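Table S5 (text form). Sequence records supplied for joint modeling of the two-component complex.
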Amino acid sequence: ASCVQHRLVVRDASSLQLLQLYTCLDQIQYIEWSSDSLFILCALYKRGIVQVWSLEQPAWHCRIDEGSAGLVASCWSPDGRHILNTTEFHLRITVWSLCTKSVSYIKYPKACQQGVVFTKDGRYMAVAERRDCKDFISIFVCRNWQLLRHFDTETQDLSGIEWAPNGCVLAAWDTCLEYKVLLYSLDGRLLSSFRAYEWPLGVKSIAWSPSSQFLAIGSFDEKVRILNHVTWKKITELDHPATIASKKTIVYKEVEKSPTVDTQRLSFPPTRELASSLFSTQSKYDISQVPVSLQYVKPVADRANPKVGVGMLAFSADNYFLATKNDNIPNAVWIWDIRRLKLSVVLEQLSTIQCFQWDPCQPRLAVCTGTSRVYLWSPAGCMVVQVPGEGDFQIVSLSWHSSGDSMVLLSKDNFCVCYLEREEV
Amino acid sequence: MGDWKTITVPVLSSDSKNILSYTSEKKISPTSMNSQVLRLSLPSSKNMHSFFSAFCTEENLEQSISYIDRELTTLGFPSIYAESKGKELNLVSIINCMNELLVLQHKNLRAQEEVEMQHMKLGSDMDHLQNCYAKLKEQLELSKREIVGLQERDRQLQSKNRNLHQLLKNEKDEVQKLQNIISSRATQYNHDMKRKEREYNKLKERLHQLVMNKKDKKIAMEILNCVGRADGKRGAWRTDKTEARNEEEMYKVLLSDYEQRQKQLLLENAELKKVLQQMKKDIISLLPPQKQKPKEKSEDGLVLSDQEEDIGELNKENMWELSCETVREQLTNSIRKQWRMLKNHVEKLDNQVSRGHSGALNEKDVISREDHELETEKLELEIQQCKEMIKTQQQLLQQQLTCDDDTTLLLQDCYLLEERERLQEEWRLFREQKKNFEKERKSFTEAAIRLGLERKAFEEDRGAWLKHQFLTMTADCNNSNATTPSSEPDIRLMKSASRQRKPPSVLSAPVSAEPCQTSQYIAQNSVASEKPAADNMPNLWVESDDKEETE
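The corresponding structure-token record, covering 976 residues in total, follows.
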């Protein structure tokens, strides 16, 4: 599904054929599929309206109007029948039910990066709240929206919460002024608290491993600390230095290949394909010899939220690899082998990394850097895939299909789907 | 001195002159005579002469002689006067006195010389000492100056050190102050933030109230028709029961997670325990079997027996299942003990080895060392030989590889030709053999055919002979019935024997290369011959002949 201005376009994933076309009242800011893929919600933040469309019955329609309360965020509940709207100024979260047409309110939600999180199996929802200048977390049962637990956290300013994939542990971390990660059990008990250091800027990003065995914490001091789930103590620190000296890491460097132009075939006026091929530069990967020094960007000292530290963390689906990005060294993706807790590969690109995502089935990483190429890495090797087409297609973000066979590449105005062929065994 | 000598020489030549000169001496001044004798600076000869003449003149001769006598006697010399005669001089005593005086003079001169020498030595020593003293004084000065310089430096460094310490303290204080400032500012900011947040909350509340109070018709949900729940169930009312059920479910989830983790941990534990047990067994096997000498190693023996008991206990299967503290401790303690023993053992071995390398007292060690050296030498020789071989081989390979293309081709061709020739020869041989075989086969077949024909003829003859026999036998039988049953088998046996005798003779002609076929024939014949029916014999034989022929 994609939206263009005020129209919602639904296409088939394998053939990109147009299936449905819906028209909303105003420009759509956000769309989301329901978990059973039967409904799509379109949020129009400016108007404060959420419109829901059904795929099975195109004639069915639903519109939720927040009115003067305004709308800042909207999302589905895991059962696909409730919509949670966050009103402006984070006044409250309204839970609209599509089955019973009833409304519930959650008061004092916290205005933070990740305030509402659902467990993987969709049973419980944790909401970060703030009352009287203190942070709280409420755990609700998604089935009947009953409050299960409500407890306070020892944080200065709770910045985010995240469930472990097994649904039993909730990680909460404080604002970047304080390095503090708290781990709560499902029933609200504090299991452990982790604090690496006191004064410098703290946690930047957090990721759970898919088996819930590890919690990776990326911080502003360019290090990732991994905690284990048995003792909740740090088992290792992964550093991101600008020079890589270890002989066991492989560094893939993106190198530009000059395009070969067949001079005989030049014609006047130059055809479009020729022009695009002339200007679009090809690139390939080269293995650089260690020691390698990566491009280092010194951050501006007196600005808030400096571009320092580990900003992106992702575990692979089979729990073997961790991909990180250090914002100081914005062109490199670091891939760590979790079995040996060592750096295994570094991908050095020509431009800043915009986004990377692991394949949900295999240990394959797709990286985009804002150029018209998507980069794929797997333990077998890495390759550069050029998006064919005219003009520049600058990939800003990407998203894998849940089967791992295709992925969507998004640029500012367009998107394309990249299909990956399976090797025939 | 020279002056004295010149004086004495003329004196010795004539006595009178001597006397004169002496008297002249004495005349000068008896008081100054001693000083004259002692004086180092000698007066000139002229003065001497004047002195000599001054003392004794012709007038005061007796006076001077008496004076000299008195002086000599006071000095201890014998008187120069003759005995009791007075005024007569004893020449002998005079000469003796003179000699004595000369000897004295020499002594005195020598003494003087020595004294002068000593004086000079002392003088030079003094000079030397003075020089040394001056140098030492200089050195002392220098070192004093150095000391002063070093002291200065030391003072400076100490003051620098103090300054640095002071700076450090200041910096620390500053840091502390800054930290305090930071914390105070942080609290201030927190306070301000809280205040602002409260204000903000108030605003939010107000806004919320306004929003709620407005009773906006707009805040509504317009839905075409209600959608069924995802799981198809109906919504439930919120009651205590549901709350309890929620709690229950939550705890179930947690418990299942814990159980899973515990299972994993149990598995891990079991594996680790197995590993530990195996390690223990390995360690025990590595340790040398300790002889239990009761006197010396009583302690060890006790320890061993304890350990053995432990081992015995812990190796019991049921102990593995228990995971209580004591069992765990026992296991770990036993492993630690074993490990320590192994370590000691290894250390002992290391010591032995090091002793063997360094010392040569123990003969055994020496011999082993020598053996070791011999072996190493042998090994080195072997290595060298191998290396040489490898080198030669490499050279050969190189030669082969680095030959010109032509030569390689030629070589290859040569090899090919050789092979081809060999093959051709072999082919030839093969063909010859094949021909031989064919010939033999033909001959065999011919022989077989002949054999068959001969056999046929033979059989026919036999048949005829048997018929004849039979006819004669029947004639006999008619005469006597009793003898027939016994004679028939005899006859048959005879026949079989004769038959058996005959085939070998027939078949001795063909080549022995086909024994199997002939033996088959024999077997066939014997089989055929043992069949009881006499009438059927010719038929059977015919059949066997057929069989033989078809074979």
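Note: The CA atoms of residues 183 and 355 of chain B lie 66 Å apart.
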